[in-house]
Design brief:
Elements (H helix, E strand, L loop, with lengths): L1 H19 L9 E3 L13 E5 L1 H6 L5 H5 L5 E4 L8 E5 L6 E6 L2 E4 L5 E2 L9 E8 L13 E7 L6 E9 L3 E12 L2 E12 L18 E15 L2 E15 L2 E4 L5 E4 L5 E18 L2 E18 L2 E21 L9 E17 L9 E17 L2 E12 L4 E14 L2 E12 L3 H5 L12 E15 L2 E20 L7 E21 L4 E14 L12 E10 L5 E10 L2 E2 L7 E2 L2 E10 L5 E8 L18 E9 L1
Parallel strand pairs: 5-9
Antiparallel strand pairs: 1-2, 2-8, 3-4, 4-7, 5-6, 8-9, 10-11, 10-35, 11-12, 12-13, 13-14, 14-17, 15-16, 17-18, 18-19, 19-20, 20-21, 21-22, 22-23, 23-24, 24-25, 25-26, 26-27, 27-28, 28-29, 29-30, 30-33, 31-32, 33-34, 34-35
């Protein structure tokens, strides 16, 4: 209760800051979308966009840190690079499409969990967190929303780098370069991470003292070409690989089933992504775009010496066409209406690589989809209405719907509302990855959700957004505690689930180089059949942060506090983890506008409260490094 009182006080302080802030330029996280694919109608989408400047200002090394505390995002991680991070949006997760890279939906490494440390922040140009029912318009079927990543895209020729090392034998390097010429540009980023003295994956409180090590590398390239004013082409290519020591289930000193040290457990993962997108203005009334994409996730490992593995890949093509039915006069005084139509084809294949005949499972899926959308604007109001019709080779044809409306009721105040219906079948890995996480009895999940919100931007230095939401799901796919699983987790269906809550995000620039911000999410979740809250779903989550560019000095200070309330980890509501408060800080010396030296402390209060039952959470960590470019 003490931490909750602190958070209420911090929220009040931030609200006061919005009123009292001094004038200055604010390089902020954008609350209202400005993506080009939807024009003004994008304002109806609830999203948080972190562009390149905001990512750099967050002082994070990888996406695990970038996602932490964002509105609507539940991130459960051991804060060590040897383990994956559980990820969901508004209570829903997805084994395919929870995250996309340059429009290509990515597979999770294990159901509901991603290797977010494999994406260094230096390789990403923009993070777009779309929350609610709008995911289908971006090629995802995730019920709670989609996190869209855009790979690094520098507009000038040059190089950039980042070197960091510190506690637990950690060393991370990133080197990148870019070239920009007339009508063409490209950016290439390469990274390597090592941890030679990492903490045990299993909770040390249960006597686990083994050191688990880790390495990974990734190469990501992006190019753009515009040979003429009417034709554009872009492409992406990614390869990443990682190896991590691990642990397996066993009996804790309290004779409970839990994760315990195992020198014979490890995992090796590879990821590939490739895409090419061509777009052309065929006429003044017709713009067409075609994307071809490929992604593959392959994982192998051992649990107590027994091998396991899964290999899955996706081939996709997506064709969209936009027609202005009537275009207005450009200033919004006359109505404008655009019609979008197209189609998508996908082929998926997944195979369990287990040596046990009973688990040598796999399958394939073909999906054909049609899509339509209307986008309109009249004066200060804009909106959209869309639907997709998906035919699955292993399921019947199922539609999704979404709609949104937004308007500026004042010059500084926008209101918005949106909602829709979603449908997502289990991925092949969610079905067949036995005995680790798979569950062949999983049913497709579906449900309705709606939201309404306001965005207040009184000046260029102040912004505040509040969103209330409601979701009603059937057969919601969740990851839950499973004592018989080698890693204690499995996928289940919750027959009837309901979630509602609200999200707050605000940011203010004061005078004298000071910026402060807050993110907060309240979630009421309920399994309607049992009356209990959903497992692994905290009721309160949030982050308070600030940066001070100390006047008349080359120094800057970044501080953030991240809070998560306690939650149950099992369906029987017998395993409960306590609330946690993490404090992180970084002091940087800017010896030129492009380069900086820094020292960063993570989890400075040494709060080792676990995020996942019997998994470790890394204690206080000190890292130092430099970054920059020209």
């Amino acid at each position: 209760m003490g931490c909750r009182a602190i958070w209420v006080a911090l929220l009040a302080v931030q609200a006061t800051a919005v009123v009292l802030a001094a004038e200055a330029t604010l390089p902020v996280v954008r609350i209202v979308g400005e993506a080009s694919e939807g024009g003004p109608a994008e304002g109806a989408v609830t999203r948080t966009i972190q562009d390149r400047e905001a990512i750099e200002r967050s002082e994070e090394r990888d996406l695990n840190g970038v996602f932490q505390g964002l509105p609507g995002v539940t991130l459960q991680s051991s804060n060590t690079r040897t383990a994956l991070s559980g990820l969901s949006l508004r209570g829903a997760s997805a084994g395919l499409g929870q995250i996309s890279l340059d429009g290509v939906p990515l597979y999770s490494s294990t159901p509901g969990a991603f290797n977010l440390t494999g994406f260094p922040a230096d390789s990403i140009e923009q993070v777009d967190v779309v929350r609610g029912a709008m995911a289908p318009r971006y090629g995802s079927r995730a019920l709670g929303g989609v996190i869209r990543l855009n790979s690094r895209d520098r507009k000038e020729t040059g190089v950039f780098g980042h070197l960091e090392g510190g506690s637990y034998g950690t060393l991370s390097e990133t080197l990148g370069g870019s070239w920009a010429g007339e009508g063409m540009r490209g950016t290439l980023t390469a990274s390597r991470d090592d941890m030679w003295d990492g903490p045990s994956t299993a909770d040390p409180a249960n006597g686990n003292r083994e050191r688990d090590n880790f390495w990974q590398h990734q190469v990501l390239g992006r190019f753009h070409a515009q040979p003429s004013g009417e034709f554009k082409l872009n492409g992406t290519l990614l390869y990443g690989a990682s190896r991590a020591d691990g642990d397996a289930s066993g009996l804790t000193p309290a004779l409970q089933v839990g994760l315990m040290d195992d020198p014979n457990s490890d995992s090796y993962t590879e990821n590939w992504v490739a895409q090419t997108t061509a777009s052309a203005d065929i006429s003044q009334a017709w713009t067409s775009s075609l994307q071809l994409g490929f992604t593959r996730n392959r994982q192998n490992g051992h649990s107590r010496g027994t091998p396991f593995g899964f290999d899955q890949h996706l081939l996709m093509s997506r064709w969209t066409n936009t027609h202005p039915l009537f275009g207005g006069d450009g200033d919004g005084s006359m109505p404008a209406l655009h019609f979008v139509w197209g189609g998508e084809a996908r082929y998926e294949e997944g195979d369990n690589a287990s040596l046990t005949p009973a688990f040598q499972l796999g399958g394939e899926r073909n999906t054909l989809s049609g899509l339509t959308e209307l986008r309109g604007q009249w004066g200060r109001w804009s909106g959209l209405l869309g639907t997709t019709l998906d035919h699955y080779s292993d399921f019947e044809t199922n539609p999704t719907f979404y709609a949104g409306l937004n308007g500026w009721v004042l010059d500084t105040l926008q209101v918005r509302a949106s909602g829709g219906h979603g449908y997502r079948p289990p991925t092949l890995k969610e079905w067949y990855f036995e005995p680790v996480f798979g569950n062949r009895n999983l049913r497709p999940e579906q449900g309705w959700s709606a939201e309404t919100g306001v965005d207040w931007l009184p000046t260029s230095t102040q912004r505040l957004s509040v969103t209330g939401y409601y979701a009603d799901y059937r057969d919601l796919i969740r990851v839950a505690f499973a004592p018989t699983s080698p890693l204690l987790l499995t996928n289940i269906n919750v027959p009837r689930a309901q979630l509602w809550g609200f999200e707050v995000e605000g940011e203010t620039t004061w005078g004298y180089g000071l910026m402060t911000g807050i993110n907060y999410t309240y979630t009421h979740s309920e399994d309607l059949d049992t009356g209990e809250e959903l497992v692994r779903q905290p009721q309160h989550q949030g982050r308070v942060y600030g940066q001070w560019r100390i006047p008349e000095t080359p120094l800057s200070l970044w501080v953030e506090t991240v809070y998560r309330s306690g939650n149950y980890q099992d369906q029987a509501h017998q395993i409960h983890i306590d609330e946690a408060v993490r404090i992180n800080a970084q002091l940087a010396y800017h010896y030129s506008p492009q380069w900086q030296l820094y020292v960063r402390g993570e989890n400075l209060a040494d709060d080792r409260t676990e995020e996942l039952y019997s998994f470790t959470y890394r204690g206080a960590t000190v890292l130092a490094g430099f970054r920059g470019g020209f």
